[in-house]
């Protein structure tokens, strides 16, 4: 296949990945933002925060922050920065969810993949193995815009103008 | 790469401002300085028993919810006592009141007939109605879903903090789950809607 046609296809796929990722984060963020009390209780169950102000801040800000990042990806504003932020959230979240699932499996004496709980991810009760696969998929999708793919149909891919190198004049 | 990092930092900064503003403007938003859990930062351990075992275990000394309530100095009642108070003529006179500590959606889907709603996470919406009733009542029964649900505990503590005497407050730990499992009717929709089902 023609390399330029291949690149074009990859770029189009990256655009769809960006839209999908943006849409998923808007949906998951809104699910939490519309019932912040339920999300607050779920965050508390992770037993990671000892201060009520910090706990309230996480539960009230995180959902809207996800929606904000999702909108940026969907509209194509600050795409690489947004993708990096989402990746920076997905990696620790996945580890935290994994840690909690391991604790539940151990406490209840059940197989790891049989652990089903509401991880506070915005999609209700999920099987842990399914959740880990989903999060891995989302992280891979976030890598596409991060490496600079999917520039089509963006309002402002980068906040800063891209450097253009002038050809060096040879005398 | 430096530009991407700077862009990410800007996204974090602007996103945080937008998120705090959205929470402040949202009617369902949380109050950042409110201690919704009354200093109880660790939740009750996840239930390991099935529903039948749970009902049998309710109010037993082994129930972590009961232990925690007693540690807080709150009085606990079981299903038999809750039913007795419900059928007491004083309930019709308002000297005994039931408070449902769950959110609007759960309350509307079915509550103990005649119970008032008192959502601990939005006390400002209910305190005006509930507080005078608590002052005149002799006994106040607070309940939520039952099981690991802690909302009744937090609602009782909120009322106690508002100077409702502790000796009036009773937490029905079996909650609406035990109530319906016993076959008692629940009222659907608003209080005194007249619509009940079992």
Average pLDDT over all residues of chain A: 92
Amino- and carboxy-terminal Cα gap of chain B: 63 Å
Average of per-residue pLDDT values of chain B: 90
Q: Could you state the order of secondary-structure elements of chain B as H and E?
A: HHHEHHEHEHEHEHEE
What would you call the shape of chain A? globular
- Report the strand count of chain A: 2
Using only CA atoms, what is the Rg of chain B?
Answer: 20 Å
Largest interface: A-B, 44 and 38 residues
User: Main beta sheet of chain A, described?
Assistant: 2 strands, antiparallel
Walk me through what this model shows.
The complex is a heterodimer of chains A (171) and B (198). Chain A is mainly alpha-helical and 171 residues long. The longest helix of chain A has 31 residues, at 3-33. The mean pLDDT of chain A is 92. In chain A, helix 3 crosses helix 4. Chain A has one domain (3-146). Chain A has helices at residues 3-33, 36-45, 52-75, 79-108, 128-146; strands at 116-118, 125-127. Chain A starts with a helix and ends in a 25-residue tail after the last helix. A two-stranded antiparallel sheet of chain A has the order 1-2. Chain A contains five helices and two strands; from the N terminus they run H-H-H-H-E-E-H. Chain B is of the alpha/beta class. Chain B folds into two domains: 1-30; 51-191, Rhodanese-like domain (Oxidized Rhodanese, domain 1). Chain B has nine helices and seven strands. In chain B, the strands form two sheets. In chain B, strands 1-5-4-2-3 form a five-stranded parallel β-sheet. Chain B has a two-stranded antiparallel ribbon with strand order 6-7. In chain B, strand 2 (96-100), helix 6 (104-109) and strand 3 (116-117) form a beta-alpha-beta unit. The longest helix of chain B has 24 residues, at 2-25. Chain B is elongated and about 75 Å long. Chain B starts with a helix and ends with a strand. The A-B interface holds A 33-37, 40-41, 44-45, 47, 49-53, 55-57, 59-65, 67-69, 72, 78, 80-82, 84-85, 88, 104, 107-108, 117, 146, 158-160 and B 3-12, 14-16, 18-20, 22-23, 26, 28-37, 39, 41-43, 45-46, 48, 103, 121.
